[in-house]
C-alpha cells in the first residue's frame, strides 16, 4: 500500500466517522425538533461556513448561466436530505446508514438513462445485488412502521444519486463553491416554511448540538474531498462502508440498538454490491 493510498484511506475513515457522528446528532435532535427544523439548520450552517470563502473570492463567483440546473440540484438534494434525516429519526443507525450507502449503486443507471453514459454489466449486477440487500433490510412481512421508514430512506438514496448525477451534468462550467452555495440557499429556503409551521422550541443544549452538527458535517465533507483528491476512488472507496461499523457501535452504545440477522445479511449484500461497482469502475476513476 503506497503512502497516498494509506493517507487517503485514513482521511476517508475520518470523514465517514464524522458524518456518522452527524447522523447520530440528527437522530438525537429528532427527539426535540422537527425534520424541517433540522434540515433548515443544516443548510444554514453550510452557508455560514461558505461565507468566508465567498468574501475572499468575491460575489462574482456566484454568477451562473445555468440557474435551472442549480434549482433542480437544490430541490432534488434537499428532498433527499429530508428523507435521510427523517429516516435517521425513525430507524436504527445501522439500517439508516446502510440504506444511504445504496445511493452510489443507482448513479451509473441514472447516468446511463439521462447522460447516455454507458453502464456496464458490473453496474447492473451491483444494482440488483444492492437492491436485494435493501429488500432484506426492508423485512417484507415484518413491522410495518420499520418498512415504511426504510422505504423513505431508500427514496432519499435514489434522490441523492440523482442529485449527484445533476452535479456531474453541470460540473464542466460550475465551480464547487457555486454548486454548494446554491444548494445550501435552496435547501434553506425550501425548509424555512416547514420549519416555521412545525417549529419546536429549541432546548438550550440543542443549540450546542446544532453548532456541533455543522462543524462535524463540514469537516467530514472536507476530509472526504481530501481523500478522493490524493487517492484513486477504486483503491479507497471500500472504506466508506466503515460507516456501518460506526453506526452499529453508536446505536448500541447510545440507544441500545442490537442489529438483527437481516441487518447483517443486508449489509453483506450492499457491501458486496459496492465492491462490484468499484470493480467495474474505470481505471482512472
Main attributes of the structure:
285 residues, mainly alpha
Strand tally: 0
What percentage of the residues does DSSP assign to strands (E)? under 5%
Major beta sheet summary: none
- Mean pLDDT comes to 82
Oligomer: single chain
In one word, what is the shape?
Answer: globular
Q: Supply Rg.
A: 19 Å
User: Helicity, in percent?
Assistant: over 70%
- Structural class by sheet pairing and helices: mainly alpha
Write a structural description.
With 285 residues, this protein is mainly alpha-helical. The chain has one domain. Helix content is 79%, strand content 0%. The protein has 12 helices and no strands. The longest helix is centred in the N-terminal third of the chain and has 27 residues. The two termini are 18 Å apart. The model has no long low-confidence stretch (mean pLDDT 82).
